[in-house]
Design goal:
The chain has three helices and five strands; from the N terminus they run H-E-E-H-E-E-E-H. By secondary structure, the protein is an alpha+beta fold. The chain has one domain: GAF domain (Beta-Lactamase). Helix 1 runs antiparallel to helix 3.
């Protein structure tokens, strides 16, 4: 039995729906990117801030970052590990600290994570930096939710 051919009104309706969805996603991405820049500006200890989303094909992809050239690139292993284990991952980078916090946990799976590289400074304790990273990740999660 031959498949029915779509009519012109059906095709136009589908195109309109696809355009509306793409426009909504682009607006969301712009707001998220602006939030990342704003958080870096208001938190001078942040060296780099990136937001990663789970992607079934890539595992994870960077959707916003203070290093805009990274947007669209696959997530690193520590980002994937944070999303898989639902636990923060902390890596020391010389005098800096890289903290990745899973966010948007649904049905036992993280849908995203926030990676933050912060300067430790001479008087800032590691535990304080990790708590700061959790608070920043929570702010991003609230904006994405």
């Amino acid at each position: 039995m031959p498949r029915p051919r779509p009519t012109l009104p059906t095709i136009l309706a589908l195109l309109q729906l696809a355009t509306a969805c793409a426009g909504t996603q682009a607006a969301t991405d712009r707001r998220l990117q602006q939030l990342v820049f704003d958080l870096q500006r208001t938190n001078p200890g942040i060296i780099r801030l990136s937001v990663h989303r789970y992607d079934p094909d890539l595992g994870g992809v960077i959707v916003a970052s203070t290093v805009t050239a990274k947007i669209g690139l696959p997530s690193h292993s520590e980002d994937l590990r944070a999303m898989a284990t639902l636990q923060p991952v902390v890596i020391e980078l010389g005098s800096d600290l890289d903290v990745t916090v899973p966010i948007l946990i649904r049905d036992g799976r993280a849908q995203a994570c926030v990676g933050i590289v912060m300067t430790t400074g001479p008087r800032i304790q590691r535990a304080t930096l990790i708590e700061n990273a959790r608070a920043i990740a929570q702010e991003i999660e609230n904006a994405m939710d």
